[in-house]
Amino acid sequence: MIPDATDPFVTDPVLARAVGYPYDITTYSFTLIDGVAAPFDPNHRRDRRPVIGYGSNQSPIRLRQKYGTEHAPIPVQRAWLADHDVVYSAHFASYGSLPAALRHVPGTRVAVAVNWLSDVELEVMHPTEVDNYHFARLDDLTLELDGGEAIDVAWAYLSFRGHVGEDTTPFALTEVAAENRQLTELSQLEVLTLMRNRLAPDDALDVFVRAHIDDQEIRATRARALEAAAVPVAHAIHKVERV
């Protein structure tokens, strides 16, 4: 399909970034080396923590934005996480997207990445997440790694803002694969359109998204409205380690 040269979400790179979330999620494991996805090497996992990436932290593009091109090799291993789905957190990112959140959903199995991070790398990751997420250890998981290994303990950033949905049911991300998905799924463009309809129905969609990218006060006001109407979070057994 030829891109529409009149569509601002195609022609404006800022808006394209907003609707592009969660970016280029791979279907394969890789090692991030100098900001580029290289073949996966499990030997690099030694002395690192398995941290579940379920939104843009699965993407080599987003990881490069966070870690740059000068870092130790970071293993990123595909996995399936049982009894969970990936939904929308009740806040807007500074770049305009409605970001992901992990939700406990018994019976659903969701595709995620496991980022094997050192303490140094966690100190880079934390400031990008902790305004809206708590860093927590999750226990009693069924997390099946690419290659056949399974682990039952991992860490993740858990949204404390609530989850965006309809009545008491959150929406899942179309862009994240799942088995036995029980929730209605929406793409990033669809969920931003719905948020526009709820929060600023008279605005064109590009005007709506640009407003909370360009104006921090508008973004904060809209985030408060999302949080006030949010579906309460639902998390598996966990212990918060960083707020």
SSE map:
Elements: H1 8-11, H2 13-20, E1 30-33, E2 36-39, E3 49-53, H3 60-67, E4 74-88, E5 100-117, H4 119-129, E6 133-138, E7 143-145, E8 150-151, E9 154-159, E10 165-166, E11 169-170, E12 172-173, E13 178-179, E14 185-186, H5 188-199, H6 205-214, H7 216-228, E15 238-242
Parallel strand pairs: 12-14
Antiparallel strand pairs: 1-2, 1-4, 3-5, 4-5, 4-7, 5-13, 6-9, 6-15, 7-8, 10-11
Question: How would you summarize this macromolecular structure in one to three sentences?
Answer:
With 243 residues, this protein is an alpha+beta fold. It has seven helices and 15 strands.
Commentary on this structure:
The chain is an alpha+beta fold and 243 residues long. It has a single domain (8-234), classed as Hypothetical upf0131 protein ytfp (Roll). The protein is built from 7 helices and 15 strands. α6 packs across α7. The longest helix is centred in the last third of the chain and has 13 residues, at 216-228. The protein is globular and about 55 Å long. The termini are far apart. 39% of the residues are buried.
CATH class: Alpha Beta
Number of strands: 15
Integer average pLDDT: 97
Shape: globular
**What is the architecture at the second tier of CATH?**
Roll
CATH names the topology as: Hypothetical upf0131 protein ytfp
